[in-house]
Design a protein that fits this description.
By secondary structure, the chain is mainly alpha-helical. It is built from six helices and three strands, in the order H-H-H-E-E-H-H-E-H. Strands 1-2-3 form a three-stranded antiparallel sheet. Helix 4 packs antiparallel against helix 5.
Length: about 110
């Protein structure tokens, strides 16, 4: 007898602490999603100028280099934000292991 170990949308929402998903739709998407710039400002606690200078275009979406996040972890004065940036880096590596070197804006929709 097989057991389905794939998490449900609700379980993923709980694991990712993401309450902005419309689960009653056949295709879920976040509601009122802020821009990539605003999401990164919220996660990192850095200024708009700092974030804007580090956002890069990669194909159809925007990203920030993982190196920028690693550098920020080493010098960030706010311990909580340092942990948030570290978590963003680790989660991105786990969820998108083949996308080495950058954190895509699509992932920040789930993380933020």
């Amino acid at each position: 007898m097989g057991v389905d170990l794939v998490p449900t949308v609700e379980e993923n929402m709980a694991l990712l602490r993401c309450s902005k998903i419309q689960v009653d739709k056949s295709h879920s998407r976040a509601v009122n999603v802020p821009t990539f710039l605003k999401k990164l400002m919220n996660i990192t606690g850095m200024s708009e100028q700092w974030v804007a200078a580090r956002i890069k275009q990669k194909g159809d979406s925007k990203c920030i280099l993982s190196k920028n996040l690693k550098d920020l972890i080493l010098v960030h004065p706010d311990t909580k934000k340092k942990v948030d940036v570290f978590a963003l880096s680790v989660y991105d590596l786990v969820i998108f292991p083949k996308a080495l070197g950058h954190v895509d804006e699509t992932f920040t929709n789930l993380f933020d």
